[in-house]
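Feature request disguised as a bug: please show the residue count (96) next to Quinol monooxygenase YgiN in the output. Example input:
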Amino acid sequence: MSEITVVAISVAKPGHEEQLRAALEGIVGPTRKEQGVLQYDLHRDVQEPRRFVFVERWVSEEALAAHAKSAHIQAYRKAVADWIEHAEIRVASKIA
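Example output, currently without the count:
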């Protein structure tokens, strides 16, 4: 089992920036209480304010998979489906 780092990017559709921001902020607290989370930080792109970036660290792929299945993440995905123009998730394993 090795540590997993995730960079998750969500780009809001024009006019939905603040709705998406509020929804993203709403999942920070519950996620930080999950077993296996080491870091879960939300950022907003300085040059493109429609772009939000999570930098996450998890103890394992299993912990990340459990996070994806959590009730608050499932509810979040349903709530924001019409507000997101583009989403990308990159998962990397720590090597050094």
